[in-house]
Specification:
Number of helices: 4
Length: about 100
Amino acid sequence: GKVLEVLKSAAKSVGDNNIKLGLGDFIFYSVLVSKAAENSFAAFVACFISILMGLGGTLVLLAVYHKALPALPISIFLAVVFFVLTIYCMSPWIEAVWQAPFYV
């Protein structure tokens, strides 16, 4: 059946079963995360986690489609969206929470 065909084709292409990220991918990720870190710790964490989520999503799509996929689009899109949301929604809320008195 199909499973046997997949196993035979997988055995033939053992050397082709690699995942590679180029140096440019790491440069774009590091620039985005460093710019987020300059702004706030919350933005840094949001960008870092969203880049990891995007890479995970890309790996899932890679497993589904069995084709070479670019690593940047999903990760960078998620990181930029979460960066903007963190800067304009989370950071003002965090500052308001820090300025409010805390009663025990």
